[in-house]
Design brief:
This protein is α+β, with helices and mostly antiparallel strands. Helix content is 35%, strand content 13%. The structure holds a DNA duplex (24 and 24 nucleotides). It comes from Sander lucioperca (Pike-perch).
DNA sequence: ACGCTCGCATCAGGTGGGAAACGG
DNA sequence: CCGTTTCCCACCTGATGCGAGCGT
């Protein structure tokens, strides 16, 4: 897929690549750290652990550990002058005047007691570069008062967008986010009750404008923002076991620029166009009635993922972002050129065979086909498609009891975002440690993730979360994206030409000759790219490598991706024999490796699944 | 006769594109 | 005039309702 080509340069380890990426219109020179950061992030897991900032902790308390890889771009704007954005953000200042009242938050779970219980200045340790945020961090531990651990489930997709500076459409009637926020949480008390909500705050004090193919600041942000800034998860409050059971998806969160008092405004987050925002996840321990649990040691924990930053727009500015949206959002399939239900490029019999089986499986075994019930499926990344992982997800999830699915907002069982840190090979722990090493907020001397353990050990990097966790993958990806393994891919193969007309020169997918994107010219850079692609579905690919370690090596996966990309390109130009061979070989491997065997991956997967709950 | 499953049609909602409208 | 916003459009997805077919 050409889209992956773009990742090629993006994840080149060379500085040239980083510099080249910085030329992207998205971030431009405004986020010089992004390039290097993502170069290494690309090797990271598709999830991302961030330790909480705990309300009761002193912001000045030094922490021995630096988990958060916060970069300046990941900081949250905390203007000193604006009372709305105090240096130490807290609920009382950021939330609407009424706080979490039903009228403002759209929920009735939060009583005034909750507001009063908030400790100003400690709930939102600011990433102001002062290090205060970092100081709030503590190592996740077990036992009472344990700090929750939050994983951004669809981090690869977020990263893809973030590389180009994510844009989110805001409309009067409200527009869903894409990618939407989806988290996995660990470390909560199984029986305690929590409310989970997302808050969107200004990420910086600037007004932004897309000029000259890049985002540039244009004056100061309008601090007079009003309206709801919080979206409380519909299932709040609920038990820790409930929150940890599945992904917590905010797929129905809507963004609007309508400050009016519309009937639905309480369920939408009001933003201002051309302002940069940073979503935050908050976990509040409450009583069964939804009132904050005063007796709890840890009341509120906040999590910020820099890659979730976005600029609110009323119309897309960067065509790269537009294309990413079209490519990844199922609801935008209509804008995919040459979209079809099956790929015309799949002339190989083995190919067709594989895909047919996959499609059959997904159709017959779907559990929760609802788009809203399958938030993960909304955000399948190309890497997943090419590695055909959704199929595995489907297989795995078929073994899960239906009652594990909840309401529409988060009917997604633990999937590739599974938290389970336990793995046989300790890979996940390595990943976990890496997260801890991601160290440093804006003040850290380095904003890069230390992914050294992954570099040079590709296979390990692909299994950072442990294979077992993947076996909990849901079928949602397939159900909501029923053609994800094939048509999407085929669409990609056949549609690029049309895309090109809108592609900006900086678009990494552009087929134009590029020293950093050419496969033949710079094969060394192909691997990083594909690695990232695989990583995008990192957790997805894990079950494959686990169940079929020999049938389909990761190298083959690379070849597959590469070959498929080439093949897709071949629709425009002559295809190479090599690519065909690789494609078919891989497809054949996929066919012969019986990835559809339900028992193979499920046994371990389910074991891991349950171990997760028995070993919180 | 009753209940269940399946397929089809319809509907609601989400998507980006593009033109028109708006506003500084 | 130019940048931004709004509205409408075609297209897509999934949910829902209905009837036919089948088994008990």
């Amino acid at each position: 897929m050409l889209g992956g080509e773009g990742e090629n340069s993006t994840f080149s380890s060379t500085k040239e690549a980083a510099d080249d990426r910085r030329k992207s219109p998205a971030v431009g020179g405004d986020d010089p750290t992004a390039a290097s950061r993502y170069t290494e992030h690309g090797m990271d897991a598709d999830r991302y652990y961030i330790p909480p900032t705990v309300s009761k902790q002193s912001p000045e308390t030094p922490s021995p550990c630096s988990f958060i890889p916060y970069t300046p771009s990941g900081t949250v704007y905390t203007p000193s002058s604006a009372g709305r954005y105090p240096s130490s953000l807290h609920l009382g200042s950021v939330l609407p005047p009424a706080g979490f009242s039903p009228s403002t938050a759209g929920r009735s779970h939060f009583s005034p007691a909750y507001q009063l219980a908030q400790s100003p200045g400690c709930i939102y340790p600011p990433y102001t570069g002062s290090g205060s945020a970092l100081s709030n961090l503590t190592l996740p531990t077990a036992g009472p008062g344990v700090r929750a651990q939050v994983y951004l489930c669809n981090r690869p997709l977020w990263l893809k967008f973030h590389r180009h500076q994510t844009e989110m459409i805001i409309t009067k009637q409200g527009r869903r986010m894409f990618p939407f926020l989806s988290f996995n949480i660990a470390g909560l008390s199984l029986t305690a009750h929590y409310s989970v909500f997302v808050e969107v705050v200004l990420a910086d004090p600037n007004h932004w404008r897309f000029q000259g193919g890049k985002w540039v600041t244009c004056g100061k942000a309008d601090n007079s923002s009003q309206g709801n800034k919080v979206y409380i998860h519909p299932e709040s409050p609920n038990t820790g076991a409930h929150w940890m059971r599945q992904e917590i998806s905010f797929s129905k969160l809507k963004l609007t620029n309508n400050k009016g008092t519309g009937h639905n405004t309480s369920q939408m987050i009001v933003l201002q166009s051309l302002h940069k925002y940073q979503p935050r996840l908050h976990i509040v321990e409450v009583t069964e009635d939804g009132v904050e649990d005063i007796s709890s040691d840890v009341k509120t924990q906040s999590f910020t993922f820099p890659e979730n930053q976005f600029i609110a727009v009323t119309a897309y500015q960067n065509t790269d972002i537009t294309q990413l949206k079209i490519d990844h959002n199922p609801f935008a399939k209509g804008f995919r050129d040459n979209y079809d239900s099956h790929s015309p490029s799949l002339t190989s019999s083995s190919y067709v065979h594989v895909f047919s089986r996959m499609y059959t499986a997904q159709e017959n075994d779907r559990l929760t086909p609802s788009p809203t019930d399958s938030p993960r499926a909304h955000q399948i990344v190309p890497g997943a498609r090419y590695t055909m992982q959704p199929l595995f997800q489907d297989q795995f999830v078929n073994n899960l009891p239906q009652n594990r699915f909840y309401n529409s907002e988060r009917a997604v069982p633990q999937t590739n975002c599974l938290l389970s840190p336990q793995t046989e090979d300790g890979a996940s722990q390595r990943w976990f440690v890496t997260s801890m090493q991601q160290g440093g907020n804006g003040t850290s001397t380095t904003n890069k993730l230390d992914l050294t353990p992954y570099e040079g050990e590709y296979s390990s990097s692909l299994l950072p979360y442990g294979i077992k966790s993947l076996s909990m993958q849901t079928s949602h990806a397939l159900s909501y994206y029923p053609d994800s393994p094939f048509p999407t891919m085929s669409a990609g193969w056949g549609s690029r030409a049309a895309y090109q007309r809108k592609i900006t020169p900086s678009l990494p997918w552009s087929p134009r000759p590029s020293p950093t994107t050419g496969f033949s010219e710079d094969s060394n850079k192909v691997k990083p790219q594909i690695e990232e692609e695989v990583n995008d579905s990192g957790s997805l690919i894990s079950p494959w490598t686990e169940t079929q370690p020999s049938a389909l090596s990761l190298d083959n996966a690379h070849s597959y991706s590469t070959a498929c990309k080439r093949r897709r390109l071949s629709l425009i130009g002559p295809s190479t024999e090599d690519s065909d061979i690789k494609c078919e070989d891989l497809a054949s491997a996929a066919t012969n490796s019986s990835p559809y065997s339900k028992e193979a991956p499920s046994s371990k997967g389910m074991a891991a699944y349950y171990s997760f709950y028995t070993n919180p």
